[in-house]
Amino acid sequence: MILRFLFPFCLISLVLISCQKETNDPVDMSIPEAPEEEIVLENPLTADGILLGKMLFYDKSLSRDNTQSCASCHRQSNAFSDPNQFSMGINGDQSLRHSMPIFNMSYSTNGFFWDGRANLLRHQAVIPIQDPLEMDADLDEVMQRINADTLYDLPILNAFDTSHISEVTLGLALEQFMLSIESKNSKYDQYLAGEVSLTTTELQGRDIYFNTLNCTDCHKGFNFDDPSGRYLNNGLDSNDEFTDLGRALVTGKISDQAKFKIPSLRNVGITAPYMHDGRFENLDQVIEHYMTGIKSSSTLANNFDVEQMNLNTDERKALIDFLHTLTDEQMISNPAYFSPF
């Protein structure tokens, strides 16, 4: 388990950067080894804590009317994301943004949610429970239900050496389960380990990703995200079209308007729809955006050069084929993440 000292979560858009490198030298087309781990002393992962967190993650009693769980909007088959553009809450209301996938959460260095408004994963975990657009529950009532359910007596005791769950331990348990969800065995991982081969088209897409387009400007490293923790505006809207101010809603800075987290591209083939608002239904539409749809605005990232992203039909297919090699079939079928009920 790869754990950074702080879990400062979330799940911005798929950013296939279209600027070329200043040099013609090819980059190292590989995934760096996973960085060294730092054990988080205040909430170390334990088998008991993970089990309790998994029970809570799949428990519909965390919603006001006992009809939805965290798993309702984070499905394992979709890399713990939601195949719907917006998730439907218990009152029939839709969420304001697309649900981000949940895996490799320990790599998040810049907060959680698309705008990073939760500094710690344990804080993020309890927000949807209380959100009127989502589970619309009162935390005190949720804890009363859990503490009254004898099914939880032993798991709570084993996990936290106490007889009752609290808001703090509720968040800690959910954090432990979500941190246990790892994605590190995609076809591309297996290829780098010498276990499988890539097709000619996948290899072509790999070269397009690392060299032709230099997508590693924003999606790099083991997790295919941005280790520096930047928030970017990738040209979805012009200033007049901004309807979601993104990071600016957290910082209050005009310079952060329409900027969102840069997500991991691991499992991107199964986490459609794409972008913070789920506006693109498939990867081909995402590529089309970077070829023809980037809109100028006051906060647009300065590393976009639309003229240089000009892929023909075969090249687009090759890039998409490569991105599908980042799907971790083992993770989405791993019984360790199945519902315990």
Give a verbal description of the structure:
The chain is mainly alpha-helical. It has two domains: 47-182, Cytochrome Bc1 Complex, Chain D, domain 2 (Orthogonal Bundle), CATH 1.10.760.10; 187-329, Cytochrome Bc1 Complex, Chain D, domain 2, CATH 1.10.760.10. Helix content is 30%, strand content 1%. It has eleven helices and two strands; from the N terminus they run H-H-H-H-H-H-H-E-H-E-H-H-H. It has a two-stranded antiparallel ribbon with strand order 1-2. Helix 1 (47-57) crosses helix 5 and helix 2 packs across helix 5.
CATH fold naming of the largest domain: Cytochrome Bc1 Complex, Chain D, domain 2
Report the CATH superfamily of the largest domain.
Cytochrome c-like domain
Global morphology: globular
Based on helices, strands and strand pairing, what is the structural class?
A: mainly alpha
Task: Give the spatial strand order of the biggest sheet.
Answer: 1-2
H and E string? HHHHHHHEHEHHH
Total strand segments: 2
> What about the largest sheet?
2 strands, antiparallel
CATH architecture identity of the largest domain: Orthogonal Bundle
Low-confidence stretches: 1-26, 36-40
Any idea how many domains?
A: 2
User: Share of helix among residues?
Assistant: 25-40%
Descriptive terms for the model:
single chain; 341 residues; mainly alpha; Cytochrome Bc1 Complex, Chain D, domain 2; 2 domains; two-stranded antiparallel ribbon; 11 helices; disordered N terminus
